[in-house]
Amino acid sequence: MKRIVVLMGPPGAGKGTQATRIAEKYNIPHISTGDIFRANVKGGTPLGKKAKEYMDKGLLVPDELVCELVEDRVLQDDCRCGYLLDGFPRTIVQAEYFDEFLAERECSPLSVLNIEVGEDVLLPRMVGRRVCRSCGKTYHLSAMPPKVEGVCDLCGGEIYQRADDREETVHERFRVYEEQTSPLIEYYRERGALSSVDGSESPDEVFAAICAILGDCR
Ligand code: AP5
Ligand code: MG
Protein backbone atom coordinates (compact mmCIF):
# COMPACT_ATOMS: atom_id res chain seq x y z
CA MET A 1 0.00 0.00 0.00
CA LYS A 2 1.27 3.49 -0.86
CA ARG A 3 1.49 5.40 2.41
CA ILE A 4 0.80 9.15 2.24
CA VAL A 5 1.11 10.80 5.63
CA VAL A 6 0.64 14.44 6.65
CA LEU A 7 2.07 15.55 9.99
CA MET A 8 0.27 18.54 11.46
CA GLY A 9 0.74 20.44 14.69
CA PRO A 10 1.67 23.87 15.98
CA PRO A 11 5.21 25.24 15.75
CA GLY A 12 7.48 23.17 17.98
CA ALA A 13 4.98 20.29 18.37
CA GLY A 14 7.66 17.77 17.37
CA LYS A 15 6.79 17.27 13.70
CA GLY A 16 10.42 17.21 12.58
CA THR A 17 11.47 15.00 15.50
CA GLN A 18 8.75 12.43 14.76
CA ALA A 19 9.07 12.72 10.99
CA THR A 20 12.67 11.50 11.09
CA ARG A 21 11.58 8.39 12.98
CA ILE A 22 8.48 7.72 10.86
CA ALA A 23 10.45 8.08 7.62
CA GLU A 24 13.01 5.57 8.85
CA LYS A 25 10.52 3.02 10.16
CA TYR A 26 8.19 3.12 7.15
CA ASN A 27 10.93 3.74 4.61
CA ILE A 28 9.33 6.79 3.02
CA PRO A 29 10.93 10.19 2.26
CA HIS A 30 10.45 12.99 4.79
CA ILE A 31 9.41 16.16 2.95
CA SER A 32 9.52 19.26 5.14
CA THR A 33 8.53 22.49 3.39
CA GLY A 34 10.29 24.43 6.16
CA ASP A 35 13.54 22.49 5.49
CA ILE A 36 13.19 23.06 1.73
CA PHE A 37 12.80 26.80 2.28
CA ARG A 38 15.72 26.92 4.75
CA ALA A 39 17.94 25.09 2.22
CA ASN A 40 16.96 27.69 -0.39
CA VAL A 41 17.68 30.55 2.02
CA LYS A 42 21.09 29.03 2.75
CA GLY A 43 21.79 28.60 -0.97
CA GLY A 44 20.71 32.19 -1.72
CA THR A 45 18.28 31.09 -4.47
CA PRO A 46 15.49 33.42 -5.71
CA LEU A 47 12.94 31.25 -3.87
CA GLY A 48 15.04 31.44 -0.69
CA LYS A 49 15.24 35.22 -0.92
CA LYS A 50 11.46 35.53 -1.23
CA ALA A 51 10.72 32.94 1.48
CA LYS A 52 13.12 34.56 3.97
CA GLU A 53 11.09 37.78 3.98
CA TYR A 54 8.13 35.87 5.39
CA MET A 55 9.88 33.23 7.52
CA ASP A 56 11.95 35.70 9.54
CA LYS A 57 8.74 37.50 10.52
CA GLY A 58 6.98 34.25 11.50
CA LEU A 59 4.56 34.55 8.56
CA LEU A 60 3.59 31.88 6.06
CA VAL A 61 5.20 31.88 2.63
CA PRO A 62 2.46 32.65 0.02
CA ASP A 63 0.48 29.61 -1.16
CA GLU A 64 1.53 30.03 -4.79
CA LEU A 65 5.19 29.55 -3.84
CA VAL A 66 4.42 26.38 -1.86
CA CYS A 67 1.88 24.30 -3.78
CA GLU A 68 3.76 23.64 -7.02
CA LEU A 69 6.99 23.09 -5.10
CA VAL A 70 5.35 20.26 -3.14
CA GLU A 71 3.65 18.83 -6.22
CA ASP A 72 6.99 18.65 -8.07
CA ARG A 73 8.65 17.03 -5.06
CA VAL A 74 6.04 14.29 -4.51
CA LEU A 75 6.14 13.39 -8.20
CA GLN A 76 9.80 12.43 -7.88
CA ASP A 77 10.71 8.80 -8.12
CA ASP A 78 11.55 8.25 -4.44
CA CYS A 79 7.89 9.02 -3.56
CA ARG A 80 6.41 6.19 -5.65
CA CYS A 81 5.84 3.98 -2.54
CA GLY A 82 4.67 6.86 -0.35
CA TYR A 83 5.87 9.98 1.43
CA LEU A 84 5.56 11.97 4.62
CA LEU A 85 4.70 15.67 4.49
CA ASP A 86 5.87 17.79 7.44
CA GLY A 87 4.45 21.33 7.45
CA PHE A 88 2.23 21.04 4.35
CA PRO A 89 -0.67 21.70 3.88
CA ARG A 90 -0.80 24.71 6.16
CA THR A 91 -3.74 26.69 4.81
CA ILE A 92 -7.16 25.73 3.47
CA VAL A 93 -6.00 26.82 -0.02
CA GLN A 94 -3.03 24.41 0.20
CA ALA A 95 -5.26 21.57 1.47
CA GLU A 96 -7.74 22.05 -1.39
CA TYR A 97 -4.89 22.16 -3.90
CA PHE A 98 -3.45 18.96 -2.47
CA ASP A 99 -6.87 17.24 -2.47
CA GLU A 100 -7.21 17.98 -6.17
CA PHE A 101 -3.74 16.61 -6.80
CA LEU A 102 -4.56 13.45 -4.83
CA ALA A 103 -7.83 12.95 -6.69
CA GLU A 104 -6.05 13.24 -10.05
CA ARG A 105 -2.76 11.48 -9.35
CA GLU A 106 -2.97 9.18 -6.31
CA CYS A 107 -5.29 6.33 -5.44
CA SER A 108 -4.13 5.91 -1.82
CA PRO A 109 -5.90 7.43 1.16
CA LEU A 110 -4.29 10.19 3.20
CA SER A 111 -3.43 9.73 6.91
CA VAL A 112 -3.29 13.05 8.74
CA LEU A 113 -1.61 12.95 12.15
CA ASN A 114 -2.19 15.94 14.36
CA ILE A 115 0.35 16.37 17.19
CA GLU A 116 -1.43 18.26 19.97
CA VAL A 117 0.61 20.36 22.43
CA GLY A 118 -0.29 23.47 24.45
CA GLU A 119 1.57 26.78 23.99
CA ASP A 120 2.92 26.71 27.56
CA VAL A 121 4.91 23.57 26.65
CA LEU A 122 5.84 24.77 23.15
CA LEU A 123 7.52 28.08 23.96
CA PRO A 124 10.42 26.66 26.03
CA ARG A 125 10.87 23.88 23.46
CA MET A 126 11.34 26.35 20.65
CA VAL A 127 13.42 28.92 22.44
CA GLY A 128 15.76 26.10 23.54
CA ARG A 129 15.92 24.40 20.14
CA ARG A 130 19.22 24.28 18.29
CA VAL A 131 19.84 22.74 14.87
CA CYS A 132 22.93 21.48 13.06
CA ARG A 133 23.76 23.76 10.14
CA SER A 134 25.18 20.86 8.12
CA CYS A 135 22.93 17.82 8.65
CA GLY A 136 19.82 19.41 10.23
CA LYS A 137 19.76 17.26 13.38
CA THR A 138 17.66 18.91 16.08
CA TYR A 139 18.77 19.40 19.69
CA HIS A 140 17.39 21.13 22.76
CA LEU A 141 19.68 23.08 25.10
CA SER A 142 18.34 21.41 28.24
CA ALA A 143 16.33 18.34 27.15
CA MET A 144 18.56 16.99 24.34
CA PRO A 145 21.88 18.86 24.34
CA PRO A 146 24.75 17.82 22.06
CA LYS A 147 27.64 16.02 23.79
CA VAL A 148 30.00 18.91 23.04
CA GLU A 149 28.50 22.40 23.24
CA GLY A 150 27.90 23.92 19.81
CA VAL A 151 29.00 20.81 17.89
CA CYS A 152 26.73 18.22 16.21
CA ASP A 153 27.07 14.68 17.61
CA LEU A 154 26.46 13.16 14.19
CA CYS A 155 28.55 15.19 11.76
CA GLY A 156 30.61 17.66 13.79
CA GLY A 157 28.74 20.57 12.15
CA GLU A 158 28.04 23.90 13.80
CA ILE A 159 24.89 24.13 15.91
CA TYR A 160 22.79 27.29 15.55
CA GLN A 161 19.48 28.84 16.54
CA ARG A 162 16.88 29.23 13.79
CA ALA A 163 16.15 32.90 13.02
CA ASP A 164 12.44 32.28 13.64
CA ASP A 165 12.98 30.69 17.07
CA ARG A 166 13.46 34.00 18.90
CA GLU A 167 10.70 34.56 21.41
CA GLU A 168 8.96 37.50 19.63
CA THR A 169 8.82 35.57 16.35
CA VAL A 170 7.59 32.41 18.08
CA HIS A 171 4.54 34.31 19.41
CA GLU A 172 3.77 35.50 15.88
CA ARG A 173 4.07 31.92 14.58
CA PHE A 174 1.56 30.75 17.20
CA ARG A 175 -0.85 33.49 16.10
CA VAL A 176 -0.45 32.56 12.43
CA TYR A 177 -0.91 28.87 13.25
CA GLU A 178 -4.19 29.56 15.10
CA GLU A 179 -5.52 31.77 12.34
CA GLN A 180 -4.42 29.96 9.18
CA THR A 181 -3.47 26.37 10.01
CA SER A 182 -5.67 25.19 12.90
CA PRO A 183 -8.84 25.28 10.68
CA LEU A 184 -7.30 22.28 8.86
CA ILE A 185 -8.01 20.11 11.91
CA GLU A 186 -11.75 20.39 11.27
CA TYR A 187 -11.19 20.17 7.51
CA TYR A 188 -9.53 16.76 7.79
CA ARG A 189 -11.78 15.57 10.63
CA GLU A 190 -14.83 16.13 8.40
CA ARG A 191 -13.14 14.04 5.70
CA GLY A 192 -12.43 11.17 8.15
CA ALA A 193 -8.64 11.45 7.63
CA LEU A 194 -7.57 12.87 11.01
CA SER A 195 -5.96 11.12 14.01
CA SER A 196 -4.55 13.01 16.99
CA VAL A 197 -1.72 12.20 19.38
CA ASP A 198 -0.67 13.85 22.63
CA GLY A 199 2.61 15.59 21.79
CA SER A 200 3.35 16.65 25.37
CA GLU A 201 4.61 13.13 26.16
CA SER A 202 8.24 12.09 25.61
CA PRO A 203 9.45 11.63 22.01
CA ASP A 204 9.40 7.81 22.47
CA GLU A 205 5.83 7.84 23.76
CA VAL A 206 4.65 10.11 20.95
CA PHE A 207 6.32 7.84 18.40
CA ALA A 208 4.66 4.74 19.91
CA ALA A 209 1.25 6.45 19.65
CA ILE A 210 1.92 7.34 15.99
CA CYS A 211 2.99 3.78 15.13
CA ALA A 212 -0.16 2.43 16.78
CA ILE A 213 -2.17 4.59 14.36
CA LEU A 214 -0.11 3.92 11.22
CA GLY A 215 0.20 0.18 11.88
CA ASP A 216 3.14 -2.10 11.48
CA CYS A 217 3.33 -2.96 7.81
CA ARG A 218 5.92 -1.09 5.78
P1 AP5 B 1 8.60 24.80 9.74
O1 AP5 B 1 10.04 24.54 9.63
O2 AP5 B 1 7.65 23.78 9.25
O3 AP5 B 1 8.29 25.21 11.25
P2 AP5 B 1 7.05 24.92 12.23
O4 AP5 B 1 5.83 24.29 11.68
O5 AP5 B 1 6.85 26.23 12.89
O6 AP5 B 1 7.52 23.83 13.12
P3 AP5 B 1 8.94 23.64 13.74
O7 AP5 B 1 9.88 23.10 12.73
O8 AP5 B 1 9.32 24.91 14.45
O9 AP5 B 1 8.64 22.59 14.89
P4 AP5 B 1 8.46 21.01 14.80
O10 AP5 B 1 7.00 20.69 15.01
O11 AP5 B 1 9.12 20.43 13.61
O12 AP5 B 1 9.22 20.61 16.14
P5 AP5 B 1 10.66 19.91 16.36
O13 AP5 B 1 10.55 18.46 16.08
O14 AP5 B 1 11.75 20.67 15.70
O15 AP5 B 1 8.26 26.15 8.98
C1 AP5 B 1 9.07 27.30 9.16
C2 AP5 B 1 8.52 28.42 8.29
O16 AP5 B 1 8.58 28.04 6.90
C3 AP5 B 1 7.06 28.82 8.53
O17 AP5 B 1 6.93 29.71 9.61
C4 AP5 B 1 6.72 29.44 7.17
O18 AP5 B 1 7.25 30.75 7.07
C5 AP5 B 1 7.46 28.55 6.19
N1 AP5 B 1 6.65 27.42 5.72
C6 AP5 B 1 6.91 26.10 5.89
N2 AP5 B 1 5.94 25.36 5.33
C7 AP5 B 1 5.04 26.22 4.80
C8 AP5 B 1 3.82 26.05 4.11
N3 AP5 B 1 3.31 24.84 3.83
N4 AP5 B 1 3.16 27.17 3.72
C9 AP5 B 1 3.64 28.40 3.97
N5 AP5 B 1 4.79 28.62 4.63
C10 AP5 B 1 5.49 27.54 5.04
O19 AP5 B 1 10.77 20.09 17.96
C11 AP5 B 1 10.90 21.37 18.56
C12 AP5 B 1 11.84 21.29 19.79
O20 AP5 B 1 11.23 20.48 20.78
C13 AP5 B 1 13.20 20.63 19.50
O21 AP5 B 1 14.19 21.26 20.28
C14 AP5 B 1 13.02 19.18 19.93
O22 AP5 B 1 14.24 18.62 20.34
C15 AP5 B 1 12.03 19.31 21.08
N6 AP5 B 1 11.08 18.21 21.18
C16 AP5 B 1 10.44 17.58 20.15
N7 AP5 B 1 9.59 16.63 20.62
C17 AP5 B 1 9.68 16.69 21.99
C18 AP5 B 1 9.02 15.98 23.04
N8 AP5 B 1 8.11 15.03 22.80
N9 AP5 B 1 9.36 16.32 24.32
C19 AP5 B 1 10.29 17.30 24.59
N10 AP5 B 1 10.94 18.00 23.63
C20 AP5 B 1 10.63 17.70 22.34
MG1 MG C 1 10.11 21.25 11.93
Write the layout of secondary structure elements.
Elements: E1 3-8, H1 15-26, E2 30-32, H2 33-43, H3 46-55, H4 63-74, E3 82-86, H5 92-105, E4 110-116, H6 119-127, E5 129-132, E6 138-140, E7 159-160, H7 167-181, H8 183-190, E8 194-198, H9 203-214
Parallel strand pairs: 1-3, 1-4, 2-3, 4-8
Antiparallel strand pairs: 5-6, 5-7
Helix pairs in contact: 1-9, 2-3, 4-5, 6-7
Bound molecules: BIS(adenosine)-5'-pentaphosphate and magnesium ion.
Magnesium ion binds next to α1.
Mean pLDDT: 95
Number of domains as seen in the coordinates: 1
Would you count the extended β strands for me?
8
CATH architecture: 3-Layer(aba) Sandwich
SSE run: EHEHHHEHEHEEEHHEH
Shape annotation: globular
Widest β-sheet, arrangement of strands: 2-3-1-4-8
CATH class: Alpha Beta
Describe the structure.
- With 218 residues, the protein is α/β, with parallel strands linked by helices.
- It has one domain (3-214): Rossmann fold (3-Layer(aba) Sandwich).
- Helix content is 47%, strand content 16%.
- It contains nine helices and eight strands.
- It has helices at residues 15-26, 33-43, 46-55, 63-74, 92-105, 119-127, 167-181, 183-190, 203-214; strands at residues 3-8, 30-32, 82-86, 110-116, 129-132, 138-140, 159-160, 194-198.
- The strands form two sheets. Strands 2-3-1-4-8 form a five-stranded parallel β-sheet, with helices on both faces.
- A hairpin with a 5-residue loop joins β5 (129-132) and β6 (138-140).
- α4 (63-74) packs parallel to α5 (92-105).
- The protein starts with a strand and ends with a helix.
- Magnesium ion (MG) binds at residues 15-16, 32, 34.
